[in-house]
Amino acid sequence: MSQATSNAASPDAETQLDIFRRMLRIERNDDATRRQIRQGRITAPYYSARGQEVIPATISSLLTDDDKICTIYRGIHDMVAKGMPLRPLWAEISGRVDGTCKGKGGPMHLTHPETGVMVTTGIVGSSMPIANGFAWAALLDGSKQVTIAYFGDGASNIGAFHEALNLASVWKLPVIFVCANNGFAEHTRYENGTSVDFISKRAIGYGMPGYTVDGNDPFDMYAHAHAAIERARAGEGPTLLECKTFRFMGHVFGDADGYMTKEEKAAAIEKDPLPAFRAKLIESGVATEEQLAELQQKIEAEVQDAIEFSQSCEYPSTDELRRDVFAEEIAA
Amino acid sequence: MSQATSNAASPDAETQLDIFRRMLRIERNDDATRRQIRQGRITAPYYSARGQEVIPATISSLLTDDDKICTIYRGIHDMVAKGMPLRPLWAEISGRVDGTCKGKGGPMHLTHPETGVMVTTGIVGSSMPIANGFAWAALLDGSKQVTIAYFGDGASNIGAFHEALNLASVWKLPVIFVCANNGFAEHTRYENGTSVDFISKRAIGYGMPGYTVDGNDPFDMYAHAHAAIERARAGEGPTLLECKTFRFMGHVFGDADGYMTKEEKAAAIEKDPLPAFRAKLIESGVATEEQLAELQQKIEAEVQDAIEFSQSCEYPSTDELRRDVFAEEIAA
Amino acid sequence: MSTDTMNKPAGEMLKMTGQGAVTAALFQAMQEDPKVLVFGEDVADREGGGVMGTTRGLSDKFGDLRVRSTPIAEQSIMGAAIGAAMAGYKPVAEIMLMNFITVAMDMVVNHAAKLRFMSGGQSQVPLVIRTLTGAGWQTAGQHSDHYEGWFAHTAGIKVVAPCFAADYKGLLLSAIQDPDPVLFIENSRTMFVPGEVPADQGPIPLGKARVVQEGTDVTLVTYSGMTYTCAAAAGELANAGISAEVVDLRTVSPWDKQTVLASVEKTGRAVVVTEAGRYFGPGAEIAATIQEELFGKLKAPVRRLGAPYCAVPFAKVLEDAYLVQPADVVATVNALVGKG
Amino acid sequence: MSTDTMNKPAGEMLKMTGQGAVTAALFQAMQEDPKVLVFGEDVADREGGGVMGTTRGLSDKFGDLRVRSTPIAEQSIMGAAIGAAMAGYKPVAEIMLMNFITVAMDMVVNHAAKLRFMSGGQSQVPLVIRTLTGAGWQTAGQHSDHYEGWFAHTAGIKVVAPCFAADYKGLLLSAIQDPDPVLFIENSRTMFVPGEVPADQGPIPLGKARVVQEGTDVTLVTYSGMTYTCAAAAGELANAGISAEVVDLRTVSPWDKQTVLASVEKTGRAVVVTEAGRYFGPGAEIAATIQEELFGKLKAPVRRLGAPYCAVPFAKVLEDAYLVQPADVVATVNALVGKG
Ligand SMILES: Cc1ncc(C[n+]2csc(CCOP(=O)(O)OP(=O)(O)O)c2C)c(N)n1
Ligand SMILES: Cc1ncc(C[n+]2csc(CCOP(=O)(O)OP(=O)(O)O)c2C)c(N)n1
Ligand SMILES: [Mg+2]
Ligand SMILES: [Mg+2]
């Protein structure tokens, strides 16, 4: 099911560079986050997506700020790829009032409507039914906007997945269901929780196109994401993309990884998409070593700035417990 | 997808008669129920299954009392087919203390463990996850018992369906998911709520065999039910059977049918499986007109006896509100 | 009991049921605001405008993009409502019966009610959930429960439960305009009862109770279907020379503390009557608050009446015993005032 | 606070956490009764015996038919538990965190809790739902809620919420033996605290509170994580010369009215302290009952402390303010006894 449409779209040089830039921004930010946690500067549950960068980086290269995403606890890579600024992100995961959610939501509920980061949920499966609502609104608005619902392989076994894909198909909603199949749901191996060899086959049950894509290959991802997004913008309805990948850091920061073999983990890291794509860009002459080194410095500076900014921010006042429950503040 | 296994089992003469007997018992009971309601003798929501008799009649001909069923508000035909005695059934829908549930459950929650009628639910989809539990218990017991989960076409769009079929497949549970596809979910036409042309195709998403069967044809039903039940008893796991049928009396007693055309309803009634199978049995010499007339008298007498019994029963005492909440009675 | 039309601008009075009032409110809201959407199972006219007909005529008038029938999938119904609301629409989602909301609790509780807070005010979820419930029709254990207590206990969602036709219209109009999620409960014993509704009935503010009958000896605090029960009880008590004040909360959360406390301070006695279960039920909040605020000023303990601790039974005799009856209220009041 | 081992048969004392006690109870129950099953997400040893390790070792010892990891599908987990329980097994199903039960409410409320009643006693559903929750770890709005109030309000299911290690073991043993559904709540602030557990700790009856500290001026009624908070407050109050009695309900539903009323009758004052939200929360039932039963015998109104009306916030400063702290209890008591 891995073939895209015959006339598969391919990213031009500029787009390839754009995808890589988003990947590197994700990776550098993830690296810094884990460092801050290790140093005890951030106290928050953290679900690293290291290894999964290609998926949102490629998809985001095909989206505008008007397009929307609904993502999950393991979704900071989706947000960074979508273009969310790092200062409010870092202030949020540091629990500061200048955080994008005033420190009330934290890493599992980051939200940034300006860049289309609409919902981040901590409940498995729940990104999908909500994404349908944004897609329905786009239909009502008569806009060409699309909504991406990000979720994992384990989430494809919960009821919300089924209800959301069925409704999206019956209503022909402009939504793309992007499953990051990293082979594990917490400590449970894919085949011990999922009854089908390819999640993309489930699309058959919804009369919807479904593809299994190499989530570590920006070209395969681009071809399929491009087709799905075009299809949605053309009013032809939803698509299910199963993107095969791997999470290098386990389920949550501190995870002992006991449920996977050293070999399979090593093998996956061996295929780390970031250095691979970097090398490819240089080989193919899309970019020079110097350019990419410079890009990396710029990104690291941006991350460093965000960290410093976050540390300079105030903590929220306890009055915040009475605010944003409803539009009207609750009386003390 | 309608073909059964090449060496499809076929019901012998005796079994054909047994299936017809179950069908007639369902139909006569349904007819009497609607009469009692029209006459105001029973005040209860009633979901007639007139037209759907073949499905449970055929399946039940392949089951023993040890095999279990979990069914729905539109499930009295499933229970009657399974062999539930009519006296406690009628006493229950009449709200009497001699009812199988002491008058506490009513028609939507009829239960009769002796004949394997384990759960009747009023919540769309909920028969399926619970059926898995009985099937798991059978595995643990090392028995050959199977569990049937009955549900409708509309129920195939709710989350519980998805979660139940996935778990049953991963755990290879001895359960058969029997979908009575009568073309409507309340007032909603199949295609306006369901995104796939054949519900049986959804089995692909669970690595499970799935078949679309003519739910009005005892021979097609028998072949597929036989294969599915054998498969379950052999420890090979679950099967999804989509049984095409039609409900002649609308969703609930008193339903105006405004959402369907007179033509399609007439066409369906034209193909009424009961007279059709009756004629076939006589044609093929399986039974004589006299035998079937006699059978009908016996059944009508049984129904009449149940009605009279139910009317002679007492109403429950209000103490019943404190009983069966927990094993231990609640103090007044 | 047409006091429900009190202090309304004089003008034509229309006879309609609570259901008619809900339909009228939906028409008016969709007419006035193109962002209002209506959807749920069977709600479009192709499906007969709802199994009860409450939404009849809406899709013919406003089109089937704004008025949509859905598959039987309450999680996807609520999810779509949440997303559309965040995108600037005002969805009125129907959950056919309250027991069915149990399959969509995650969407309602973890998402609709929390997204504004968790996003630090960036997200707004101005949706309405309309749902029907109530015992009295022998629909038994899975079709009649009053679970408003769960939602009143959930921060971020308002709970409205009218009794009278005019309130059904006015409160639904306000619920739709409200910038936050509102659960709107239609009670099956009051929804189909005719009442008088001013032709120009507009929004009635949420969170305001109404004294449907004034009295001096005891306050009956109630809402939804039990308002009829309490009014009937008040009538019987009057014959026995006991003057009962009946306060219809109309909104369960946030509830109108002021009106209730003022009434109980006056009467010195209170009985809280709900159709919801008594045990750990919504009546407990009201009783606990009254004793906290009026300690020392009460002539008697605050009593609570509600459903017994069991599922809703099928048999009519049991269902009648399950529901609080006027006689139960009368007996409780008699005991409080030291009579009978 | 090792009073939690009071009146236990003398004998060896083991140091273990609440988690260790839960694991020990599961081993013992599975050992004693082959019908006991354990399942849920990641519970088998192949998956590390649970993300927290609470079920570690069980599948290795009892096999992977009796101890099974499941897909992420709480409706199917609860459905399987219900069917297996009705078929004669005693399933102990794990719902990893309490917020996740929202996707399985139909199975718990419409089915597990009602099937015995709706079947007129023909069906039995002897299952246990183990679930972890509680604020304090900055897991924010969807991973920390105390929703026991919903289930206490639901007829047909018992709710147990221990604080001390010995109670975790003894109450879980009773919950597993109980013929009806039991929701067993593990609190994330008490679950990992070491305590003393008698080596021969057996079942502790459900529905019985325990006075963890005796006092004469005020009764603090609490359970789960807030028992620590109240004990700490009682300590501070003692220094200020105020004698507080701390009653740990241990079982929320059915709750131990007798023990609570006896204590409040003695002290004349009560503060009900829950981690669950105060508004329409479980504390209201207890406060409402106390004022009903002890009207005229109270020296002060019954106060309630609980979470404020908002989602659980992320920032540590906000989470600390969200949780009731010993200082809040002390201030409330001081006001009641007319000091400070
Ligand atoms: C309804 C629900 N059940 C359980 C959990 C606990 N949980 C959090 S992440 C997770 C695994 C999800 O796996 P997958 O969907 O593959 O996403 P991944 O974490 O691998 O990115 C689980 C079970 C949850 N958050 N929500
Ligand atoms: C969760 C839930 N949502 C809605 C309903 C209301 N309802 C009862 S029957 C029904 C239609 C079911 O259709 P189908 O599954 O095709 O079964 P049929 O009635 O046709 O036999 C609906 C929507 C319900 N009982 N439960
Ligand atoms: Mg995964
Ligand atoms: Mg149907």
Structure notes:
The complex is a heterotetramer, with 2 copies of chain A (332 residues) and 2 copies of chain C (340 residues). By secondary structure, chain A is of the alpha/beta class. Chain A has helices spanning 13-38, 54-60, 76-82, 86-93, 127-141, 159-170, 190-193, 218-233, 262-270, 273-283, 289-312; strands at residues 68-72, 117-121, 147-152, 175-181, 184-185, 188-189, 210-214, 239-244. In chain A, α4 (86-93) crosses α11 (289-312). Chain C is an alpha/beta fold. Chain C has 12 helices and 14 strands. In chain C, strands 3-2-4-5-7-6-12 form a 7-stranded mixed β-sheet, sandwiched between helices. Chain C has a 5-stranded mixed β-sheet with strand order 9-11-10-13-14, sandwiched between helices. A two-stranded antiparallel ribbon of chain C has the order 1-8. In chain C, α2 (58-62) links the parallel β2 and β3 (67-69). In chain C, α3 (74-86) packs parallel to α4, α8 crosses α12 (326-336) and α9 (257-267) crosses α10. Chain C is globular, with a radius of gyration of 20 Å. The two termini of chain C are 27 Å apart. Residues 1-8 of chain C have low confidence and may be disordered. Chains C and D meet through α4, α6 and α10 of C and α4, α6 and α10 of D. The structure holds thiamine diphosphate (2 copies) and magnesium ion (MG) (2 copies). One magnesium ion binds next to β5 of chain B.
Mean pLDDT figure of chain A: 96
Helix amount of chain C: 25-40%
Which distinct ligands sit in these coordinates?
Answer: thiamine diphosphate, magnesium ion
What is the radius of gyration of chain C computed over CA atoms, rounded to a whole number of angstroms? Answer: 20 Å
Number of helices of chain C: 12
Strand content of chain C: 15-25%
> How many strand segments of chain A?
8
